[in-house]
Amino acid sequence: MALILVRGENNSKLLNAISDMERHGNLNLITTPKVIDAGFADSLVESILNSKLRTKSNVATAFFVKEDTTLSIMQIKKIHPPAHVVVVSDEYGGYSQLEKLLDGADNLPGYNSHKAKNDGMIDYKIKAEDRYIKNERLNSYIKK
Length: 144
Prior knowledge:
By secondary structure, this protein is of the alpha+beta class. It has helices spanning 11-23, 38-49, 69-78, 94-104; strands at residues 2-8, 34-36, 59-65, 84-88, 120-122, 132-134. The strands form two sheets. It has a four-stranded antiparallel beta sheet with strand order 2-3-1-4, sandwiched between helices. Strands 5-6 form a two-stranded antiparallel ribbon. It is elongated and about 60 Å long.
């Protein structure tokens, strides 16, 4: 489970970045994206990168994904979202602060997931209730 922080200029860019991560990065959101203070997000990213940011963000959001930290970073590197995406590891000091902020934060307005609520495709040849085909190809190396 990884914590992802997204910074951007406006809400539409945040929503596009999240949908790109879901569609093209094959990441599965566990929680709905929450609104985070942009100043806090900027200071957290500066502490993670150990350098000053060139541009400050106007809006920010954070959420948890099902995949682990390493896989999330690899999948996000493949796509080019229109916002600044940072995978916050639990090794960083601001992780616990961000996690506490998520508990009381409001949901990001306008977010709707395009992914199906079931686990995968449906096998219509099977007449039982358990007819979903699970696709664990993306997480095949993770031990459960």
